[in-house]
Amino acid sequence: MAADPRRSWDLFCRRVDNFGDVGVSWRLAAGLASRGHRVRLWVDDPSPLRFMAPAGAAGVEVLDWPAEFDGLAGQGPGDVVIETFGCELPACVVEAMTARQPAPVWLNLEYLSAEDYAERSHGLPSPQPSGLAKWFFFPGFSPGTGGLLREPGLLEQRAAFDREAWLAGRGIARRADERVVLLFGYAHAQLASLIHSLGDRPTLLLLAQGPARQQVEAMAGQLPARLRCTGLPWLTQAEFDRALWCADLNLVRGEDSLVRAIWAGAPLVWQLYPQEPEVLERKLAAWLGRLCAGTPSPALHDRLQALHRRYNGLDGSGLDAPLVWPDESSWRAQVLRWRASLAALPDLVTQLERFVNGKS
Fold first, then answer.
1. pTM of the prediction?
2. I want to staple 6 with a disulfide (CB 3.0 to 4.6 A). Which of 36, 68, 205, 309 is the partner?
């Protein structure tokens, strides 16, 4: 493989049922291209990119999966081939990879997890019937994983951010006594309890596009008196990050928005992707263990666990039971401590480059 550190990368992504797979893949593609790599992003449904990245990114070519595979056969696969989230490459792509000399470095970018298996499995090979090796690459929250997507200078941009100016630029005026909460979530049964619990003080609720927003809008006329709601338009990824930066509390879902909420540095509540209860229990416990590691407030972990179990429908409480919020100052301080420890680790794109260099 050429010694030039600028490589050609093929990223493959299938949109499952929401925007997260495409969102993570785009951030990765744009991050690689920003470092001088040439990236082709093959996606079976590129429609979310119309609002996530309408201007595209220099160095990234978006191609239709599978309509343009003939083009791949003609040009050959790149130096690196990544299938995101186990999307499984078509046989014609694997055949083209086998024929390439030298063979591409083949990676499976896995879903983000705080569980121990991410460390155990990160960087392991998976021999394939084609004779090629496919390597597992696990994003994660510890030095033994592939880290998190984080653009250079992101936290400096966060520190310099003016939320009042950002809100005013979108015709939103925050009242002096209002906290700001952003909601981005799946539809779920506990949402009404959440909304009423937010009415304990003057609150400006920013509603991101999605099912949770639709649920809240259906509650018109039943909202607490001290809660004001305003809907946000479809936002680019960069603008979505800034919406998170506006908030004193972020209520997020899935993988991509969780990572971006961590970088935002405000208290956050995570709604996991709906799965079997025992799976949710395990994933949530592992994540809270990472978040609360080393906290000087022993009660914080218990409060956050109770809140997240309730929010994710795991504790069996009635729908009218109130949500109990942790102490906000210790919550914020712990998020900032955790963010600092994560920011001290190499970001995911850097670790990908190092991994590929070691296999080339």
1. 0.95
2. 36
